[in-house]
Amino acid sequence: MGTTTLIAANEEYTGSAGQKDHDSALKFITCGSVDDGKSTLIGRLLVDSRTVLQDHLAGVQRSGETDLALLTDGLLAEREQGITIDVAYRYFATERRKFIIGDAPGHEQYTRNMVTAASSADAAVVLVDATKLDWNNPQLELLAQTRRHSLLVNLLRVPSIVFAVNKLDAVQDPVAAFAHISAALRAFAASAQIAVHAIVPISALKGWNVVERGASAPDAQNLGWCDYIGPSLLEILEQLPSTGADPTQPFAFPVQWVEKFSSSADTTQGRRVFWGRVAAGGVQPGQSITVMPGGQTATVAQVFDHARQPKAILAGSSAGIVLDREIDVSRGDWLLASEPDDGYNAISLEGKTTLNATVAWMDDVPLVAGRVYWALHGHRWVKARVNRIVHRLNINTLAEEDATELAPNAIGHVELALQEPVATRPYAQSRMMGSMVLVDTASNKTSGALLVQ
Nearest Cα to 268, choosing from 296, 297, 313, 299? Predict the structure, then answer.
């Protein structure tokens, strides 16, 4: 049952207009330091793309002028304090494409929200505020939060990263400022092994080089503002690829819900439907699967789509799966391809109780060796003990340093011992199977995001 057969069988479903819109839409986030202009940029994109209704614009007026940032700040606390706390998602479209935007907060204490948004993004626009930097210095230092967010989106395998140098309208020499900041960004990206798609100068407040190329500044020479003659930010976003789930990987399916659908005496197949979203590969009747944990094997008897229609399903879509016989499968279990046709399956079917992982620590209480947490993998909860902290990443020097603890918002490498075996793949191979969340057993707070190595 090859991938080509699955794609052909699934052609009718993916060929619908709604699915095409979903697949082609670009899901991107804006991130960076506090007050770099992230919310203002999104407001500018919404206004200039004519997505905002007039009555909505009337509700975000301050001192007779439109406050673009208020278009995304939906919480009362955000509007009162003028900051972004939670991730706000907004939608807009141009003639070429549809977009889903996540406005991530810049404050360190809300890093967990930024990580959540980045984990499923196709692209990240990292804003850099020119007015906060020593822009006249060719050897200028970037802000710590700019570096942290850039490292995080790279660790989270966000496919396309764009640096937008903002507020160049507020510096005396925007040409020199953009040149020096661009050089600092390129040097940092090279040392951190971050692939940068583009570096673009903008003014989110005035709309320069955001939707239309160039600027209306008196010293701007048409398309050559800041000596930049490339596309506008929106034109760059329109060309970025959207990244769906990979159907070429071996089948992987986290069970979210178990439904008993038959009470007949028919013993030719199981009597339960296992519902969830296909994480990798594809599924169709006749496939051999292995249940993890447990290791029982079975054959897929039926596959339903979200409308309960029989159909082969590819990664990224919901499915209901009926097996050829009754075996013990519960919420949180994984159905995995049984055929050992490549290295992926050997890793998956082995099940691991010891993991090495990169962690982005988000709790207010530092991470120390010996602590026990709940680990969430797919829909499965297991107890996890931190055996040791291997190292901590210095976000300024990018050096891996010895550490006995990880402070809030630190990034490091840890070794975990799991109470039960978990079927994982390296995060570099699978976002879904290679990611876990650590939750404090007492407070139930999200403590860390794990990326399996």
Answer: 299
Q: Please identify which residue in the block is written with the tokens 């991107």.
A: 28
Which parts of the chain register pLDDT below 50? 1-20, 53, 55, 58-59, 61, 74-86, 222, 343-348
Is-contact 203 168, C-beta < 8 A? yes
Confidence at residue 94, expressed as pLDDT on a 0 to 100 scale: 84
Cα–Cα distance, 177 to 56 (Å, whole number): 35
Cα–Cα dist 44/40, whole Å: 6
Amino acid 352: pLDDT: 80
pLDDT of res. 4: 35
Entry pTM: 0.74
pLDDT at 67: 52
What would you report as the CA-atom Rg of the chain, rounded to the nearest whole angstrom? 24
Q: What is the DSSP string of 379-448?
A: TEEEEEEEEEEEEEE-TTT--EE--SEE-TT-EEEEEEEEEEEE----TTT-TTTTEEEEEETTT--EEE
State pLDDT tens for residues 83-105. Answer: 444 456 788 888 888 988 887 76
Beta strands in 144-236 (DSSP E): 160-166, 198-201
| Cβ neighbours, 10 Å, residue 167 | 25
In angstroms, the CA 62 to CA 172 distance is: 27
State which H helix or E strand residue 194 sits in. Answer: none
Work out whether strand 411-422 and strand 352-361 pair parallel, antiparallel, or are unpaired: antiparallel
Place of tokens 């993916």: 14
User: For residue range 260-294, what is the model confidence (pLDDT) as tens digits?
Assistant: 876 556 667 778 899 999 988 889 999 999 998 87
Question: For position 248, what pLDDT does the model report?
Answer: 73
Half-sphere exposure of 281 (CA within 13 A, CB side): 20
Query: Residue 27 and residue 418: Cα distance in Å, rounded?
Result: 33
In whole angstroms, what separates CA 15 from the centre of its chain? Answer: 25
CA dist 8 and 75 (Å) reads: 45
Which residue bears the tokens 């203002």? 40
Compute CA 381 distance to the chain's CA centroid, rounded to the nearest angstrom.
Answer: 21
Q: Are 370 and 395 in contact (CB under 8 A)?
A: no
